[in-house]
Amino acid sequence: MGTVTLLSDDDAAPEARPKIVMGLSVTATLMALALAAPVAAQDVNCADPVTQYEMTACASLAFEAADGDLNLAWRMAMDMARHLDAAQPGLEPPTADILRDAQRKWIAFRDAACSAEATLARGGTMANQLFYMCLERLTRQRTEDLRLYGEVN
Fold first, then answer.
1. How many domains are there within the chain?
2. pLDDT in tens, 62-80
3. Domain assignment of residue 33, given as a range
4. Cβ contact 4:107 at 8 Å
């Protein structure tokens, strides 16, 4: 179903961040990897996808774009958290630690929620598409939350 980025508190490039696969059977993981690899090698017309493969590939690409936006918002939010920590040194736990813990819990929630949503097509070819569509939707929502935090607090 999907590879999920674990966010770190440093500014490492997204490709340097650790990756995990959560809550997936070996078969589902292999299917997801098989779907993801050809997407990069093959042009998929996401303006008018026709086959289930294309629809799933496009959903995966949309999630990847959303994940990139999330990583930018994450850096902005962590910068704000560090700024707050610097303004009030010695507070425990540090704001950055609280934000990091919340983000890790949100990732676990998102993955579990999307796994549950994908069961609407359990055993069918549309399950992976539903999973990626859910990942994109929840990731975009979280991105807005992190942007708000980074800009307002």
1. 1
2. 999 999 999 999 999 999 9
3. 4-152
4. yes
